[in-house]
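pipeline/complex-builder :: batch 7 item 3
reading input block
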Amino acid sequence: MEKVLTRNIGLAQKPTDLKAYEANGGYQGLRKAMAGMSPKDCQDVISDSNLRGRGGAGFPTGMKWSFVPSDDKCTPGHKYLVCNADEMEPGTFKDRLLMECDPHQLIEGMILAAYTIGADISYIFIRGEYLVAIQRLRDAVDECYAAGLLGENILGSGYKLDMYVHPSAGRYICGEETALINALEGKRANPRAKPPFPQVSGLWGRPTIVNNVETLCNIPHIIDRGADWFNGLGVGEDAGTKLFGVSGRVKNPGCWELPMGTPIREIIEEHAGGMQDGYQLKGFLPGGGSTDFLTADHLDLAMDYNVIGAAGSRMGTGTMIILDDRTCPVGMVLNLIRFFAHESCGFCTPCRDGLPWSRQVLQDIEEGRGEPEDLETLAYQVKYIGAIGNTHCALAPGAMEPLQSALKYFYDDFKQHISSGRCPYH
Amino acid sequence: MSKKEMIQSDIGSVLSAQEIAEIDAELAHIPYKSGAAIDALKIVQAKRGWVSDECLQGIAKYLEMSAEELEGVATFYNLIYRRPVGEKVILFCDSVSCWIGGCDDIKSKISNVLGVDYGETTADSSYTLLPVPCLGACDRAPVMMVGDDLVTHLDDKKITELFGSAANGSAK
């Protein structure tokens, strides 16, 4: 398979600087756009490519961009492009690779995205712990300003764009795009009510697009090589390639660029080398900590957004977490719910008070204090905390996904904890 | 002395000229002063390790916001420290992939060797131990950060190499 996003990324290879990036075809997409493509031309190519957001929700990128009002339909002022580089979803480790190893690919994608939507200021909102990526991105941005790829009159086109690398001060909720915008404005990162959507009223009340790192890294290649080429990369119903990852007790945990629609079995058994000796696969979260469990029965499904959705889960970030037969499913869900309870921004009640309640019930069950009616309580919590619309954002509903599917697939484990008064895995 | 000059000389007694210059550089591309709140907290913390009440009040005054509002911002973010921390902060990942990889035992070992639990600093101020959301290195779990360094594939041996062991008295 042709490597696209990771073509410059090799083991033990230094990250690409501007010279190396350009020598391998970098900034071709930008040169092509600046030489003869209008923002509308770029918008059409991205819409036709069927690129969907790689941050977890899978929203069509072209459609998202199309909601930004044109200059004649909004008051004069700035428009913003923000790269969401706040990778913090439990079990997700793909954007770190893209930023540490090929920073210019992201920057080229951002310049093209900003040009398409008419933005004149862009931010890379990156988690503060990614120190290596922060430094490499800053160096790369400096190289771009020096080479006329950022700043005034980019490549002689008359287009102007400034770019800032903005390290975050923490908190998982900043990955939610309206919370991220509040953090960029120097406020507490409580998500905002929608509408208005950021495309219309985002950063400082101005039109703003927030896109994930991996999404933006696709843009230069699509502009350079076209929508048909990109559509042809997937082996299932979705377009392009994707960074898929596996962690947990497999022989070779890691992250690989593969075609969209690659079967789960191939990812786990071939690329991750299958389970470690002495361990069996009991279940897995297909795309990070806030996706529903799937089981061995689902291994032959394709990693496509709608296929995984139809199976009752979400492709999320595409980085799977494996539950093995010697790890307690109740303990695993407890770990996840503890995380989400801790990371709640505290703004609305089902999340602030509901998640700690779930955590308490799960902890009681895991530590042998569970009662039979606790299972009804958990089902009640899933129903009311998990319902979209009961909360301000998707954090609490996302937290309920692994819990509701654990109750479905591992119900006997929960019952056994309660009937025997202890965790059978310890 | 004008009111503005008085406020600035007051702030100048708390914030250094370099800190104020760095905050001004952020303000250059931010439309409202309070928009630089998090940046300013980080700038001050970078120099001093943490944000004292005095500094918080100085920043609030400089950004023309109330100290209470800035405190609300400062305490929201886990990488802003409102208490003194050790020379190095240990950001320990206890999210799901590291948990599957046995991070609970590693954390007990660290607590045992250093004599601190989450939120505590060693007696000699070398280390502060804090939990952190998934560090995005799950293929190398369990992991943590010690100061600026990511440490991967944690096991007992690695913890002993880093921090010594409680038994031989070399714990810091």
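note: Helices of chain B lie at 3-12, 17-27, 37-48, 53-62, 67-74, 96-100, 103-114, 156-163.
queue -> next item
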